[in-house]
Fold this sequence. Notes:
462 residues, single chain, 21 helices, mainly alpha
Amino acid sequence: MTGGADEARWAEFGRLLRSLRRAAGLTQLQLGLRVGYHHSLVSKLEAGLREPPVGLVRRLDAVLETGGELAAAVAAPRAAPYRPGFPADPTLFAPLPGADLTAGPEAPDPGLWPSRLPAEGLACPLHGNAGCAVPDRGELPALLDSAVPHTGTAYTEPELLHGLTAVLACLIREAFQRATGGRVAAVEGLARVVARWAAEIGAAGRLPYGQLRLAAQYAQVAGRLRMERGQSGVAMAWFGHGLRWADAVRDVPARATLLSDMCTLVRLDGDAGSMLAYAAGIGAVDARRRWTATLSGLYQARAHALAGDAAECRRHVASARRKFARLDGRDLLEAPWLAGTEGEMRVDSAIGGALRDLAVATGDRAAARRAVAATARSCAQVPPQMRATRLLLTLRLADCWACAGDPAAAVDLAGEVLEEAVRSRESMVGAELRGLHSRLDGRWRDLPEVREYRERLLDVRE
């Protein structure tokens, strides 16, 4: 191999090969026998240590039934050779928002420590979904002390990357499963630590591949936490940094999910045009991935709904449903949150939201009734630990009933979660609550049940 660019190129090919092999249910030995090579070569290819021999890529595509995906990856234009002085883009490590760390953050709850990666949707930044082990949870304090003042001194580079990914998984569990937003400083501080680590490696002339992938993961979580607080400017800044870091190492899953978060953020501001642009960008990330096409369709449907375009909204809903039904093992390795009932919950939630938004924009009660059906299905599939999601979807379902012309059903549902919703500091919950109130006040202000609901709301707020 001739340098950092080739190393990154064949490392990415190896990760793709490993993912496809596992999706096909084959071991390295079995794959080697089927393509006529020793399994040790398959191992080296997956580790990014060898360039595949001429003709082998086509045989791998045929055996794994990829439709030419590996050949396409090999044929993709090569990046410019990697040289010292990385990055060429001066904005890659531009000033970062949020908190900095001068000492290690308080260790997260060791009871939330994952046993392996992936965890909480976070793949290993070096090895993808290979199932990497993480340091023992008893090493948490030493791990954080090593990361903050002198990155990499007490642990090897892979160990530190694995450990910091596990820390982020813990922080996600604390922030989202326990509905506590107090970990934003730790997430932002560690994002800065990983970004500085990446900058140091780049200045030394080596591609900071794992560091940038991990930094993008931290940036995405930081942006989500800020978005939940209603701090849209800081959230968009973090998403923008994460997108640049993901692009620098061609991290397709991170790019797609960051664009998804940006869609959500501009939707909260009612910006249909920007949402449509970001949603189309998700689909342009990689046309071969059905899961990105599914996300693109769902977000485009909601953008068209905000704009009141019923025909385009419904077309994209139908397209997203078709693509979701065709997701395969390769898609779900990259987007495990779209698998099973959780995936169905997420898709129904997005469709219900789009149809509700369409009903608000057009007054179409038929669309509202379809929104009721989709949102009710989504509510029924929410896992018990996703309390904030259940609260949000309950409020959305109440709003769907209001849009469908049944204020009594809306009031009954919202009444069950009113106190929790008023106490919530999450911006999306607040947006759902405000939307519901505007529908009830605007159409049925004088109904007895609506008056009683308003009085109860005033009592709760006091």
